[in-house]
Amino acid sequence: MTPNAPSRPTRVAVLGASGRMGAAACRAVEEAPDLELVARIGRGDELSAITEAGAEVAIDLTIPSVTAENVRWLVEHGIHAVVGTTGWTEESLEALRTQLEGAEGVGVLIAPNFAIGAVLAMRFAEIAARYYDSAEIIEMHHENKLDAPSGTARHTAAAIARGRAEAGLGPVPDATEKDPDGARGAVVDGIHVHAVRQRGLVAHEVVQFGGVGEQFVLRHDSFDRISFMPGVLLGVREVAAHPGLTVGLDGYMDLG
Amino acid sequence: MTPNAPSRPTRVAVLGASGRMGAAACRAVEEAPDLELVARIGRGDELSAITEAGAEVAIDLTIPSVTAENVRWLVEHGIHAVVGTTGWTEESLEALRTQLEGAEGVGVLIAPNFAIGAVLAMRFAEIAARYYDSAEIIEMHHENKLDAPSGTARHTAAAIARGRAEAGLGPVPDATEKDPDGARGAVVDGIHVHAVRQRGLVAHEVVQFGGVGEQFVLRHDSFDRISFMPGVLLGVREVAAHPGLTVGLDGYMDLG
Amino acid sequence: MTPNAPSRPTRVAVLGASGRMGAAACRAVEEAPDLELVARIGRGDELSAITEAGAEVAIDLTIPSVTAENVRWLVEHGIHAVVGTTGWTEESLEALRTQLEGAEGVGVLIAPNFAIGAVLAMRFAEIAARYYDSAEIIEMHHENKLDAPSGTARHTAAAIARGRAEAGLGPVPDATEKDPDGARGAVVDGIHVHAVRQRGLVAHEVVQFGGVGEQFVLRHDSFDRISFMPGVLLGVREVAAHPGLTVGLDGYMDLG
Amino acid sequence: MTPNAPSRPTRVAVLGASGRMGAAACRAVEEAPDLELVARIGRGDELSAITEAGAEVAIDLTIPSVTAENVRWLVEHGIHAVVGTTGWTEESLEALRTQLEGAEGVGVLIAPNFAIGAVLAMRFAEIAARYYDSAEIIEMHHENKLDAPSGTARHTAAAIARGRAEAGLGPVPDATEKDPDGARGAVVDGIHVHAVRQRGLVAHEVVQFGGVGEQFVLRHDSFDRISFMPGVLLGVREVAAHPGLTVGLDGYMDLG
């Protein structure tokens, strides 16, 4: 997407600029004609460099132990924040909401997943789930991933379960009587989830729906970390127009 | 989907009951606990049998030359109509709209495609199109299909073009300079469309979206004509709650 | 495939002609110009009808408890046999081999799977396995299947394990440390196997291979029981040219 | 694949070491425990550095205008050559064959495609083609590719045509009467070939076969240039055992 360039570029700071995601975000901001990278904050750098540089929006791609503190500081100084770091708890989110009530016009986006395709897959899965008897998830990742299934697959299973509940659907049909080795995979919120680990892959999700005589499939492939950047930039461009706290990139997307 | 059975089954007539689609509809209505098949109308049968049987909803699966006349008769007699026959023109639709203004509470659904999955694919394609640089369609059918590409693929291309226009996206990127044999396929509303014809297939559509480092795919497979029946039944169940004319099954679906 | 029609059609009997597979085989033989259906043997029919009809080849699609006895009778009477019934043991196969030594020129084919595509997938999987670090299987079936994973998936896993052993490959790479719900599926001969159960599907197998920067995929879809018939006819046409016992349709296929 | 490391590493030179493929080859050789990189030859470097370094095998990844001359020099000096450069003609191949007759024990491999998966797909496609009525190819590449369809797709179409001819199959079934925009794609050796161009993709090929009630699919995905390296290393390890000229990596692979 190439939005209309505003008259003046938005001034952006990146926290966690020396990490892999942070470095990719710096490059993405630099290449966007409507954005200007004014501060790269790495470990040990003072946050005051952000205000000194006149940043309007900050991207936090740091680590769980410092992100909440960073965002509190940013809101305190009237800087919008786009946050990709995990580790937020109900308590830290609640504290942030309270702080934002007193910070008029400041927006914060906390997004566990900046891949637009993963967000689309999750949303579409919830809708499609209403219309099909069967639903199953296959997530596929590189061979070095430590946990199974992926967090995205768990979230997608939850979305499917919500869609099925809304439509009054019961359990998925499954006549399996004999599965001595566990080939039917994990069951998350009533939905079977399979995890493939394969050298050469990055991050992929397939959601399959089945009804009498038909199949409906959603698939998202992330071939590269860079695929998160359009989502990050979407957040940066929209955060000022969404005061208060938004959790999930879909809050900024027009999925209706 | 197993909706809550109403206290009394809805009384349903099928027009075109001796055709293949009509016969399948008769079976589907008979097997639905909340519906009752009260009239099968074939070629040469009198329409009056529909009112005599006390039908509340009629399914029209006849042929282009008679469907408009059938529907006019049904509306005249206060019977809701669910129509899968093609051949409607802007003129015949307009005449029907005018008639329906004077027929309070009567609903008509005209749906060119009753496959819920095809409707979902089209709707999701329009939304996803806003977020990706590239979009392309591959439709696949049995080897006896006479035309290419399919009507569904053409409609999907139009939906993608709408989504791209809404997002201010220009033409899809494509550096092709040399394509002597036409491998890049058809271009419909700016979107490349490929048609595969293969023995053993029925009706399949794949929509692929691409951005830097990622891919998003929608796929619908119709393995059997019976896959249209859930859409027909959805229409029958919802038509009374939607007075006036609705074109497209998506008008009855909650896709938000 | 349209083989050259021989001067005189081969005379074929079908045992188990009233079962679903048997009925399909009868139709397939009747439609083949180079074959002639001369006897349909159902439960209770005398086998002598086969010799009386002058059958040269018999297709056995009966049940495990009678197939060995049927085939013994056929070999005794000099009739070639193409057998799709399961239930053969090492003992019954050995007895048949011994009998065939004294029945010069008589051929018997016992094939656990007549789907040519499944045979190809298994053979190609063994070859491809030599060249890839990772290999994983996803089998998908209708929701009424009782066991998981499928027999074909188990055989394919064994074929992959053979291929890896030939190439001196060790275990597949897999860093999974945390998989509380069993998302990584079954492990058969060292290969992860996933079983999807979905309404609307019939029988499908996907074999995925991965190496640094690449993926190789084999996929077979059976949409209908009729997909076994080309394999049955291949057996009927080739059995006379392969005296003695052959186990597996691949013995008749040119896969080199 | 982790072959048994030989007692002494093979000494390897890379020509075209400063190009992208050449640089990747240097890294791959350095990382292989059974190989030793002894010379990197870039533009302007003297070939004599190869013999001075005691190289046993040379990898030529230069450009069409110099590759033939390079290989002639290598053979003259008794060095085995693995060549990935295109631009070889019937004449230059013939001259090389003649030279090799007088160079006992020297092996040369010229491979237009070092992706093992593409070689497998092509070989398997030729075999599978014998058993299916329908066959079609979809190749998919990044949006900057200049020509369509890809060379690999053309070679695969030729392989399918050979397979069909061996089996006595006629033209693929196709009832298309109306295709005003060319959705049926290119026809290469009687096989329909479709080219998709999509941002985020690299190089992908899908080969679909269809018969009554079934489908068989071969798919190869190259996500990265690095996927060619296992093929290059396979060539380096095998070239000494294959004196004379071999065209195509499949000559070194055990595909039987």
From TrEMBL, chains A, B, C, D:
Keywords: Amino-acid biosynthesis, Cytoplasm, Diaminopimelate biosynthesis, Lysine biosynthesis, NAD, NADP, Oxidoreductase. Residues 117-246 form the Dihydrodipicolinate reductase C-terminal domain. One of its GO terms (cellular component) is cytosol. Pfam families: DapB_C (PF05173), DapB_N (PF01113). CDD domains: DHDPR_N. The active site is at H141 (proton donor/acceptor), K145 (proton donor). It catalyses: (S)-2,3,4,5-tetrahydrodipicolinate + NAD(+) + H2O = (2S,4S)-4-hydroxy-2,3,4,5-tetrahydrodipicolinate + NADH + H(+); (S)-2,3,4,5-tetrahydrodipicolinate + NADP(+) + H2O = (2S,4S)-4-hydroxy-2,3,4,5-tetrahydrodipicolinate + NADPH + H(+). NAD(+) binds at G16, A17, S18, G19, R20, M21, G84, T85, T86, A111, P112, N113, F114. Belongs to the DapB family. Catalyzes the conversion of 4-hydroxy-tetrahydrodipicolinate (HTPA) to tetrahydrodipicolinate. This is 4-hydroxy-tetrahydrodipicolinate reductase. The lineage of its organism: Bacteria, Bacillati, Actinomycetota, Actinomycetes, Micrococcales. The gene is dapB.
